[in-house]
Amino acid sequence: MIIVTGAAGFIGSGLISTLNAQGFKSIIAVDDFGQIQKAENLEGKIIQEKVERDDLFTWLEQNYKDVEFIFHIGARTDTTEFDKAIFDKLNVNFSKDLWKSCVKYQIPLVYASSAATYGLGELGYDDNEALIPQLKPLNPYGDSKNDFDIWALEQKEKPFFWVGLKFFNVYGPNEFHKARMASVIYHAFNQIKATSKMKLFRSHHPEFKDGEQMRDFIYVKDLIDVCLYFMHHRQDSGIYNLGSGQARTFKDLVINTFKAMDKTPEIEFIDTPIDIRDKYQYFTEANMAKLRAIGYDRPFHTLEQGVEDYVKNYLIPHRYL
């Protein structure tokens, strides 16, 4: 059996779909299934059992002998949430308990960290574990992910194989439910469909022109491939970046969305909301050398390839991965 937490979410549901396609049918889906807006993400997936998030550790006590692997993808990911207690409960303490269970029951673990841990990138975007305690995230979400990374590295007792993956800006199918936290491509598609134009945040940084803020956008299919690589690889434990390795502008992203929709680009600029303006990352780019060095050699989608596939094969037909 393979456990996937956050199973009904964006990345978790896509991971289950790919596991199914590769012949893995004994999937234990863990989530807060009371959030019915995510239910469509699991339609058509082959799942052995659904387990409520709060019941997972009781379930593990009874079934650990049959568990082969755990993907811990579930988390509170809202970067505009500032209640630290929520992040402590869902992102830090739950993850600690799952780590301890993996140690106790000798279960390999892959968990989701985040590029939000890098803050403004003062120390760069290298997945050097020695730098992790010095990172300065910009919000409680980033703090929670970095707090757990630090804790994991400090532990004397570790799962016999474990990996933390710092997800950069992920986009792709199954994010219909994410509202404000969905990718810019998803919002662009809906705005362009409704108004034939797209609004982007104006730059409030003198070194960046409007629309030329840069992020490392990674297509969810590439992210899932890396997760599955580690499930099969099961060596070289540690914390790794997971981005495309190539920063691109929001303007590039939106122009490619227009192109995939066969529409002429029309972009307007609006002020960045006050509540996130001083916490805004103007540049992120994953150094992917560490992952490549252990033998991962599959190419990542270019932004052009990823946007075209996402828009034409998932957003336009409203199809799920």
**CATH superfamily heading of the largest domain:** NAD(P)-binding Rossmann-like Domain
Number of strands: 12
Q: Tell me roughly what share of residues is in helical segments.
A: 25-40%
The major sheet is characterized as: 7 strands, parallel
Poorly predicted runs: none
| Order of strands, widest sheet | 3-2-1-4-5-6-10
Broad structural category: alpha/beta
The assigned CATH architecture of the largest domain is 3-Layer(aba) Sandwich
Strand content: 15-25%
Compressed to H and E, one letter per element, the order equals EHEEHEHEHEEHEEHEEHEHHH
Radius of gyration: 19 Å
Domain module tally:
2
CATH topology of the largest domain: Rossmann fold
Distance between the termini: 21 Å
Question: What is the oligomer described by this structure?
Answer: single chain
- Average pLDDT rating: 95
Number of helices: 10
Provide the CATH top-level class of the largest domain: Alpha Beta
Overall morphology: globular
Family: Belongs to the NAD(P)-dependent epimerase/dehydratase family. HldD subfamily.
Domain NAD-dependent epimerase/dehydratase: 2-243
Binding site for NADP(+): 10-11, 31-32, 38, 53, 73-77, 145, 170, 178
InterPro entries: Epimerase_deHydtase, Heptose_epim, NAD(P)-bd_dom_sf
